Inverse folding.
């Protein structure tokens, strides 16, 4: 498995640190692209861009975390070649990989300053496992749709 690229702002920082330990325990290689220290004034688009660019460059996968998961998902999807998702079930996670060949998983960290609670490490682990181990289906209809998405990026 290729290196997984991680990124999070202050609201996702705690969960990112826990995920790093989880990945290490599973012997999954990762690279933390930041923030590497807790900074309550940092902004998620910076980390979303870093991870998204590296995922495209290395043809790998990434995990991004902010308070709601929506901000990093929106920011990452601005980078050509990224198909970032914020699934709300294991089925959606699996389908995002099988049908859309999603390459970045976005998770809600919650954080002390955020009104929404984040995903637990146990649930995050389940989602990450499905995301990392589900292959793209390679079905013609899904390949065709990804080509259509790529045309939109031009």
């Amino acid at each position: 498995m290729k290196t997984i690229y991680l990124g999070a702002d202050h609201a996702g920082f705690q969960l990112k640190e826990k995920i790093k330990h989880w990945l290490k325990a599973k012997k999954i290689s990762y690279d933390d692209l930041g923030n590497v220290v807790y900074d309550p004034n940092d902004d998620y688009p910076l980390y979303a861009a870093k991870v998204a660019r590296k995922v495209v460059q290395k043809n790998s996968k990434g995990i991004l975390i902010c308070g709601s998961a929506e901000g990093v998902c929106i920011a990452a999807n601005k980078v050509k070649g990224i198909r970032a998702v914020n699934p709300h079930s294991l089925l959606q996670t699996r389908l995002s990989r099988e049908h859309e060949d999603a390459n970045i998983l976005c998770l809600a960290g919650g954080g002390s300053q955020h009104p929404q609670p984040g995903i637990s490490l146990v649930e995050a682990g389940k989602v990450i496992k499905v995301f990392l181990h589900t292959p793209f289906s390679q079905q013609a209809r899904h390949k065709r749709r990804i080509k259509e998405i790529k045309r939109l990026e031009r």
